[in-house]
Structure formats: C-alpha cells, structure tokens
C-alpha cells in the first residue's frame, strides 16, 4: 500500500481520515463481536466500546487502507504503481456478511481450478479458472485482457518470458507458486503439469524478479 | 362481472344489500373465483359476511408469507377448497446463517392438516421451510392429484425424498428444486419416474450434485412431450446435453450442465446445431465451467433470450462481452462480478431492453479482495438500459455521485439492492457517508418497493427513507445509522412497510418501542446485534398480544441483551415448536 496518501487529517496513521469516523460512531455495534482477521472463536461478550471500536478500526484499517482514501480510481488504476505491491491485509470476518447465500458459495467451489492472479501495482487480485484454458498462450491472452495496461502492445516473448506493459513501459515476469510453495517462472513445465501444481500466479515486476530461477525460492 | 363486484363494493346502501341478498351464493362464488390477486381477495372478504363466505369458498390458491402467522387449523377452517399453497418459513437472514439450526418452519404439520382437509391439493411452493424425507414421502402418498412441487432455499431432505415424489406422483407436472440444503446421496431418484409417466413440464435439478442416470433422463425427456423447462446439474456433460436437446426441441427454458468438455472431432458443430434445434429457448442458465471456446455455439440461441443466468460461471470480461453482443433482447441478466466493469459496459451497449440486473460476487469470503465490479459498471449499465428497475449489485466501492447518476438515468427502480461489501465504507472519492446516494434513490424512484442499503450511513439516510419512500415494502439495513432516530424515521414514515430486517446497527429500545403500533401492519421485523434489551422485548410482547416476540440468545452473551429479535404478527398465538435457543416472550 502506498504510504504517500493525500489525506488531510490531523492524525498520521494509516487510514487516518477514516479514523475520524471512528470517534463519531460511539454507539457501536454490540452483539456479535469481531476479532481482527480470523480468530477462531468470536468473543461473545458485549464489551461495547472496545470490541466495537476494534471492529470498525479493523475494518477500516484492513480493507480500505490507502486505496480508498481520496484516490481517484481511473480506468488504469491497476497500472498505478503503489509501491511494493503488497496486497490488502486480511479482511475481518463477519458472520453472514456479505449477504451471499452459502449455497451459492458452495456451488462455485468444487471442480474448477481457480487461482488468484496478482499483478504488482494493482490493489486487487483477480481469479482465473485454469481448467478452461488449454495452453500458456491461451492463459496469457486472457491475462492480457484482464490487466488492461498490457493490451495495446501486449507481447509475450517466450524466449525472454516477459510481458511488455504498454502504459508504463515496465516489464512483468509471469511467476507462479507451486505445490511446494516455490515461486517458479511460467512456462517451465508442460501445461497440464502447471495446471495441476499452480496455487497462485503473480505478475512480478522484472526488477524484482532478478535472481528468480526454476526451483529457486524467491527473494520477495 | 368484475365491474359488478366493484359497483357493489362501492355503494353499500340498503337497496343494494337487498339485491345482494337475493343473489345466489353460487353465482357470487363464480364471480369471485375470477379474482386472482390475493390483495383483491382480502379486500373482498372484508365487505360483508356473505362476501366473506363466498370468497372463502371460491378461493383455490393461498399465499402465506410467514408460516407462523397462521396455523394449519385456522387456514383449513377458513378456506375449504384450496388446491395451491405457497408457504414461506424462516426469516430471510437464515440464508446467511444468522438463524439457529432447528429454528422451526417444519412443513409436516401442514401436510398432515392438508391430507385431511385438502386431499385434492395440487401445488405446493415452499421457501425457507424445513422439509424432511418423511414429509416428502407423506406428500407423495397422500395427494393423488398432486402436480407441482417447488422447493426454494429449503433444507432437511435428501434425494430419497425426491425418489418418493418421482415414484408416486403420477400427475406431476413440475419438480423445481432450487438452492436447497439438500443431502445429495445419489442420483438414482431420477430413475424412479415410471416408464408410463409423461406429464412433466418443468424439471429443475440444477441444485443437485450427484450423477443421475443419463439414459433414464434421456428417456424421461423423450416421453414428456410437454416439457418446457429443463435445468440439469453439473454432472451432465455437453455431449449428454446435446442428446437431450435433440429430444426436446420444444424447450423454452434450459439450464445446461457443465460446459467444459474435451470435445473432439465434429463436436462443436453438433453442439451448435443442437442449440439451433431449440428455437423457443428464452431462458438460459447453468453453464458451469464455461470454456470460452464453446460459447459461440450459443450465439444463435442468444438472439431470443430474455433471461440469461450466468451466476455460476466465472466468465471474464472479454468472453462475456463477446457473448452479450448476441443478446439484444435480454430483459433479465444475472452475472458474477468476474465480468467486471468492462463486461457491464458491454451490457449497457447491447441490451437496451434490460429490466433486471444481478451482479453476484464470485469471491466474497476470500481473505483477500478479488477485483469485481465498481461504480463505473453500474453507471455504464444505467446509461444504456433505461428500463432497468431491478438491481442487486455487490461491489467493493461506490460513490454518491454515481448513484445519483444511476437513478437519474433509471428513475423507475422498484428494487434497489446495493451491497458495498466492506461494512461502513464511505464514498471512496469524497470520504462522505453514502447518505446522499440513498437519498437520491428514494427521492427519484417513487415506485421503490424494496431497498437494501450499505456503506457508511448516518441517520440522514433513514430520514430520507421515511420522508420519501412512500411505496417501500421491504428494507434491509446492516452496519448503518447513528441513533434510534434512524429507525424511528423509517417506522414513522413508510406507510407500506411490511418487512424490516436490521443487523449490527446502533438502534435500541426507544427505536424498537416506537414501532409498537406499526408492527401489526407489517409481516415481520428482524433485529440482530443491535442495542435492544430483553426488558424492552418483554414490554413489547406484553403490550401487543397479537405479535409474537421471539428472542434468540447467543452463547455467553449478557443476560439482559436481546441478541437477535424476530417479531411478527400472527393470529395463531405463540408457537410451540421453538427450539430451546429461541425464547418466545
């Protein structure tokens, strides 16, 4: 998350301007309490002030971070570099929220091979279903469409294994995390083997990919 | 005949009443039997005693929005000739696991009463009811004329129950199993339809996961010449689907199975011609795991589509945009947010007749935020689809300005359900609360019946709602408001309010008790994780004997807090089947 937010607020911590709401919402949300991230058992007490504040703080802090503070999100928000490419921290888990039927959730899980795709510089992830593609070319065509900054001169050069980003001229290296938690370069193994072992994909900025080689743990 | 009824309703003087008195009951019943609207019938029954009786004898369909508002005994006593029953059970928040298990809404007692009083029952539509296999077996065996079973969001049964239905219901025309918590042990239920059985018109088992006997399915489809709706489950392959389509060219609604297959040789052409063979398909769903390669096979069929349900397919924006170009007649569209704003822009550009849009989140519960749609997509649709009146939209960010633009483009919203998935999120551009967004909605959309609000909201939102939303019937509120005043504004201001569901809001006893008079004109009120105490609930229960006030306690919570409150009007008195976790006050 970028630290250079244009927030005009007296406090200097993350999510600062939104913290001001925190003090206004004094009545809080009693009842189901929420602990930050995924604590196994929600505290059931009604410690109104501290639990509730904890929740609101957590939610504001974790979810909104800087990408929600006074930053106009244009169409190329993905291309806006926000620093180190860290992802939003874990969401606070609230029972029954968002209001999506568990039936629907169950139906979407299951047989498809959905993996997360992260692009350095984009605040949100995407997911692709690897099962529906039949080759690396197929996959990259889809990735190009998804991350618009690559479309105009999107060029997958098998030799160099780099994607040229048109908008900002940066080059991205497609990497993935395999079953052994190693970060590998895409294209090393046969497609079917890749589909089976891929856990998630990250399009890493070339500058950060230095030293990345097959079977070598990443530095990042 | 209808105008005659109306005339009599309007001028109840002695001369007219004398005429009515000499009017044979049977004729009046025939006249009234033409009335189908439940509300009209309710009005009619209030005119005078004769009309009350004529109405009750002539009524064949009954709709019960809350199964505990009336008892089977009261129902069967009043209406002797019912053929079609619709029953809804649990509060809607049970869909999101907010209601304890074994809460109630069991269908069985109703079936027992119906077996005695309505042996000729033909149709049963259940939503959020507890249904056991035993109940389904009872149903199958006790109603020889039974034709239609629709189960939506029910739980407690397995495929064994379905087997009983298939085996015994000789006159079945419709079996519609949707979104249920069903124990799916085996697909053999489908083979239980006898070879002599041909009356099926609607078959929807998309919900189920187990494999069915595809030969049996094919034979069933072949011999049911009136089959109009066929929605299969994921286990049915593309190849099998093709064969089914060739057997049922008369189909109007189709739910495909898995759209993922390693088709080889001539398969694509076959797939396309199979779809082309069904010229009457206007509704399409299913499409699990849709491989982009095969989607073009649908393009011709898409020309006539009015309802496309892609909410189980994680299509990306490019593939979706290519598909939607072929759907100019679309009126209803359900999609996953994987289509993103670009996909929605394509909708805006290609579907001018669109009336309903639902965008579901593909990954709402993941610990990281997956992209989805933003306000831009919604705005794009509003520019292109001016007839839009029903929206359900899940997103991670929104602005007041965007919503104002949307309702300016589409002022005819009847259902506006916006879910900004981060609780309490302000307008991300201005950092203001989202009050003005919903203010714009209620000010502009005078026909608004249903509203779900989200984002950071102060009491101002509720002031707006109370002041402007005069046709509002259903309101859902979560993580919103600042004080009791918010809820009070709604209770005081919305004359047509029927259902109010609130969670995690700072509304307390004062707000709860301000609605004392109001609750009898409403179907129900749900309040959970608010500031309501047991004492206030007891007071409410004491003062309003025609309301059931039920409290569900959380483990380990403060004794004085009413964690979850469900209040509803009833003529049946307090219920006796509540589990220990539900206290009736």
From TrEMBL, chain A:
GO BP terms, alphabetized: auxin-activated signaling pathway; regulation of DNA-templated transcription
Pfam family, one: AUX_IAA
Chain segments carrying region Disordered: 26-45
One GO cellular component term: nucleus
Subcellular location: Nucleus
Domain of life per record: Eukaryota
InterPro entries tied to this protein: AUX/IAA_dom, AUX_IAA, PB1-like
Residue stretches making up the PB1 domain: 112-206
SUPFAM superfamilies: CAD & PB1 domains
Keyword annotations from UniProtKB, A to Z: Auxin signaling pathway, Nucleus, Repressor, Transcription, Transcription regulation
Gene3D superfamilies: Phosphatidylinositol 3-kinase Catalytic Subunit, Chain A, domain 1
Annotated function: Aux/IAA proteins are short-lived transcriptional factors that function as repressors of early auxin response genes at low auxin concentrations.
Family: Belongs to the Aux/IAA family.
Oligomeric and partner information: Homodimers and heterodimers.
Name recorded for this polypeptide: Auxin-responsive protein
From TrEMBL, chain B:
One Gene Ontology cellular component annotation held by this UniProt entry: SCF ubiquitin ligase complex
Keywords linked to the UniProt accession: Auxin signaling pathway, Developmental protein, Nucleus, Ubl conjugation pathway
Pathway annotation from the record: Protein modification; protein ubiquitination
Molecular functions (GO terms): auxin binding
UniProt key word Nucleus: yes
Limits of the COI1 F-box domain: 22-60
A GO BP annotation: auxin-activated signaling pathway
Annotated InterPro entries: COI1_F-box, Leu-rich_rpt, Leu-rich_rpt_Cys-con_subtyp, LRR_dom_sf, Transp_inhibit
Domain Transport inhibitor response: 80-126
CDD domains: F-box_AtTIR1-like
Compartment(s): Nucleus
Signal peptide boundaries: none
PANTHER family (UniProt xref): F-BOX/TPR REPEAT PROTEIN POF3, S-PHASE KINASE-ASSOCIATED PROTEIN 2, ISOFORM A
Protein name: F-box domain-containing protein
């Amino acid at each position: 998350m970028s630290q250079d937010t244009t927030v005009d607020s007296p406090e200097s911590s993350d999510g600062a301007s939104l913290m001001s709401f925190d003090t206004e919402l004094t009545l809080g949300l009693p009842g189901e309490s929420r602990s930050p991230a995924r604590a196994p058992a929600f505290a059931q007490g009604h410690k109104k002030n501290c639990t509730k504040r904890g929740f609101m703080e957590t939610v504001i802090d974790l979810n909104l971070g800087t990408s929600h503070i006074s930053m106009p999100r244009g169409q190329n928000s993905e291309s806006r570099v926000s620093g180190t490419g860290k992802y939003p921290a874990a969401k606070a888990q609230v029972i029954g929220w968002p209001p999506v039927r568990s039936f629907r959730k169950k139906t979407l899980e299951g047989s498809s091979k959905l993996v997360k795709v992260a692009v350095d510089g984009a605040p949100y992830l995407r997911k692709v279903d690897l099962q529906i593609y039949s080759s690396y070319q197929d996959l990259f065509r889809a990735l190009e469409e998804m991350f618009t900054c690559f479309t105009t001169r999107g060029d997958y050069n098998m030799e160099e294994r780099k994607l040229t980003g048109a908008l900002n001229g940066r080059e991205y290296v497609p990497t993935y995390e395999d079953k052994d938690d190693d970060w590998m370069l895409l294209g090393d193994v046969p497609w079917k083997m890749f589909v089976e072992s891929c856990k998630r994909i990250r399009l890493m900025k070339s500058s950060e990919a230095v030293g990345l080689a097959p079977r070598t743990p990443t530095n990042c | 005949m209808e105008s005659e009824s109306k005339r009599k309703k309007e001028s109840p003087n002695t001369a007219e009443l004398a005429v009515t008195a000499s009017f044979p009951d049977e004729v009046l019943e025939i006249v009234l039997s033409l009335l189908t609207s439940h509300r009209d019938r309710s009005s009619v029954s209030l005119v005078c005693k004769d009309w009350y009786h004529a109405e009750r004898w002539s009524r064949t369909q009954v709709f019960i929005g809350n199964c505990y508002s009336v008892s089977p005994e009261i129902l069967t006593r009043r209406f002797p000739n019912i053929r079609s029953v619709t029953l809804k059970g649990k509060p809607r928040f049970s869909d999101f696991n907010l209601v304890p298990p074994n809460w109630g809404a069991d269908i069985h007692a109703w079936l027992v009463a119906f077996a005695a009083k309505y042996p000729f029952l033909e149709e049963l539509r259940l939503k959020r009811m507890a249904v056991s296999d035993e109940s389904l077996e009872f149903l199958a065996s006790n109603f020889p004329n039974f034709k239609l079973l629709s189960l939506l969001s029910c739980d407690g049964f397995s495929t064994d129950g379905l087997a009983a239905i298939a085996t015994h219901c000789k006159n079945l025309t419709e079996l519609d199993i949707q979104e249920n918590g069903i124990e799916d042990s085996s697909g053999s239920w489908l083979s239980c339809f006898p070879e002599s059985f041909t009356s099926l018109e609607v078959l929807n088992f998309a919900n189920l996961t187990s494999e069915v006997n595809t030969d049996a399915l094919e034979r069933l489809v072949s011999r049911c010449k009136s089959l109009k709706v066929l929605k299969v489950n994921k286990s049915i392959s593309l190849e099998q689907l093709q064969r089914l389509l060739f057997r049922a060219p008369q189909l109007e609604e189709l739910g495909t199975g898995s759209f993922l297959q390693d088709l080889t040789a001539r398969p694509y052409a076959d797939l396309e011609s199979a779809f082309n063979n069904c010229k009457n398909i206007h509704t399409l769903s299913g499409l699990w795991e849709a491989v982009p390669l095969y989607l073009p096979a649908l393009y011709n069929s898409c020309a006539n589509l009015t309802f496309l349900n892609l909410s189980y397919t994680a299509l990306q924006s490019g593939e979706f945009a290519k598909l939607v170009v072929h759907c100019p007649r679309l009126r209803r569209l359900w999609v996953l947010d994987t289509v993103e704003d670009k996909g929605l822009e394509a909708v805006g550009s290609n579907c001018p007749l669109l009336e309903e849009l639902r965008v579901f989140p593909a990954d709402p519960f993941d610990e990281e935020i997956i992209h989805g749609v933003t306000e831009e997509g919604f705005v794009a649709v509003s520019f292109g689809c001016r007839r839009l009146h029903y929206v359900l939209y899940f997103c991670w960010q929104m602005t007041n300005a965007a919503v104002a633009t949307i309702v300016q483009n589409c002022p005819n919203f009847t259902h506006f359900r916006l879910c900004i998935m981060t609780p309490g999120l302000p307008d991300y551009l201005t950092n203001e609360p989202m009050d003005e967004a919903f203010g714009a909605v209620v000010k502009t959309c005078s026909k608004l019946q249903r509203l779900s609000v989200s984002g950071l909201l102060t009491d101002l939102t509720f002031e707006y709602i109370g002041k402007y939303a005069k046709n509002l019937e259903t309101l859902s509120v979560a993580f919103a408001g600042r004080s009791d005043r918010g809820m009070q504004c709604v209770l005081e201001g919305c004359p047509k309010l029927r259902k109010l569901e609130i969670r995690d809001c700072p509304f307390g006893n004062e707000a709860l008790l301000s609605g004392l008079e109001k609750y009898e004109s409403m179907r129900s009120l749900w309040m959970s994780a608010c500031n309501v105490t047991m004492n206030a609930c007891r007071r409410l229960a004491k003062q309003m004997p025609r309301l059931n006030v039920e409290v569900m306690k959380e483990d380990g919570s403060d004794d004085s807090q009413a964690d979850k409150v469900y209040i509803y009007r009833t003529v049946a008195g307090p219920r006796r089947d509540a589990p220990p976790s539900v206290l009736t006050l």
